[in-house]
Amino acid sequence: MACIVFGVTGGIAAYKAVEAVRLLVQRGFEVRVVMTEHATRLVGPDTFRAVTGNPVSTRLFETTGPAIEHISLARAADLVVVAPATANLLAKMAHGLADDLLSTTLLATRAPVLVAPAMNPDMFNHPATQENLSILRRRGVHVVGPAKGAMACGEEGEGRMVEPQEIVDKILEVLGLGQKLIGHRVLVTAGGTREPLDPVRFLGNRSSGKMGYALAETARWMGAKVILVSGPTALEPPPGVEVVRVETAEDMRREVLSRYGDCSVLVMAAAVADFTPAVRSEDKIRRAGKEGLTLELVPTPDILGELCEARRPGQILVGFAAETGDLLSRAREKIRKKGVDILVANDVTRPGSGFDSDYNQAVILFRDGRETELDLMPKRDLAVRIWEAVVEMMRSEPNGEGNWQRRNDQAQTTE
Ligand code: CTP
Questions:
Q1: What is the C-alpha separation between 367 and 145, in angstroms, rounded?
Q2: Residues with catalytic annotation?
Q3: How many angstroms separate the Cα of 30 from the Cα of each of 24, 73, 223?
Q4: φ and ψ at residue 399, rounded to 5 degrees
Q5: Distance 55 CA to ligand 1 centre (A)
Q6: For residue 303, which atom of ligand 1 is closest to its CA?
Q7: What's the gap between Cα 403 and its chain centre?
Q8: How far apart are CA 390 and CA 134, in angstroms?
């Protein structure tokens, strides 16, 4: 889960930070709020604690855990946001001052930083603030706003913090996620299926579900409504995602078929069993009196194959191919045979990638013959690349995104 450290300083706009944090939590981000002393005079830390479900950090020497807090926050962050960012905080950042928890965290982090300045227009236009901002921009700090308008102090001008949704949009942009799947409902399958032999045994596979869960999580970040049909896994379901738990290939087929009609995209990341025992014993199979045991297996339904035939025009189907050698030629054969739009192929025997790893190395094949070979990367990053491939395909379809039944009503409920 992406962790956003959200700094709140003592500007009147601190109340708007609550809404920005709420929107982020709703999108499934892990948000850790750090407040300056002055910010706590404007909004109570309990408000942020209630919205995030996490402790709120305010003081340098009052840690909420065993670690040195500014370092652990700085390392945990995938992004540090400061909203509102006062002139004082910008000055401290520009000059490397570190005298409270937020400024020390900002000095210690290697994550990207986004600030949303908010202050009186004269303070904003003061050469000191302008120089500080240009120092920060040169260093790669992202800046959103301020906007023009009426200020809390009664004056008009440039200095209002931008609205919470604009902060969220900018965060998604900095994280490379954008709003690319807003208005879409997507179905993702994950994990391995289990085919029961008797009440205590099953035929399974080594899929951990991590790739499918990363796809569900990142689709949610990108604004989609997500349904995750998952085989048994030890993973926590991503927040904001509808999870349907299944066990067998037949269960998965039933749940996918009943839901996919409403979806613009289906990604079959699950490792579905290809065969299932012909007979499921009602009682535990006993060892006594047997020299050996031969199992008769029968094929399971090919879910992806069935969906390819039943799909609506414009629906995008993504398949996976877990191979054990001869990756490209098998993948090329599979995309042709399966009739999917995109096939993500990976060699599961490669060290450091595939089953149970947090990393994966894959080739993305497109139905028009294009192929993108990717480096070894975290499964979450690969998931974003897969969604980007899907979005690109939707845009290039002649009856693509424009003709999609965009579910704006649902998109709004996700916000
Ligand atoms: N799949 C499916 N239904 C099945 C088996 C697989 O929908 N009964 C899906 C997987 O989720 C995956 C894709 O089909 O997205 C390819 O799975 P894979 O097992 O690699 O392909 P197979 O067609 O089973 O080919 P083979 O086992 O011969 O490599």
A1: 42
A2: 153
A3: 8, 12, 16
A4: -110, 50
A5: 44
A6: 7
A7: 26
A8: 37
Quick check: CB of 320 below 6 Å from ligand 1?
Answer: yes
Q: Does the predicted TM-score (pTM) go above 0.85?
A: no
Query: Which tens digit of pLDDT belongs to each residue from 8-66?
Result: 999 999 999 999 999 999 888 999 999 999 999 999 999 999 999 999 988 877 666 65
**Paired tokens of 83:** 């909203």
Among 222, 214, 205, 206, which Cα is nearest to 264's?
Answer: 222
Phi-psi sector, 53: left (phi>0), alpha (psi -120 to 50), beta = left
> Is 260 near ligand 1, meaning CB less than 6 Å away?
no
Structure token pair of residue 81: 């946001």
- 213 CB within 6 A, ligand 1: no
Domains and CATH numbers, the chain: 3-174 (3.40.50.1950), 185-413 (3.40.50.10300)
Question: Which residue, 281, 283, 311, is CA-closest to 295?
Answer: 281
The fraction of the chain above a pLDDT of 90, given in percent, is 74
Structural contact between residues 264 and 205, judged by C-beta atoms closer than 8 angstroms: no
As a whole number of angstroms, the distance between CA 181 and CA 221 comes to 9
DSSP string computed for 196-211: EEETTEEE-----SHH
At which residue do the structure tokens 């191979």 appear? Answer: 323
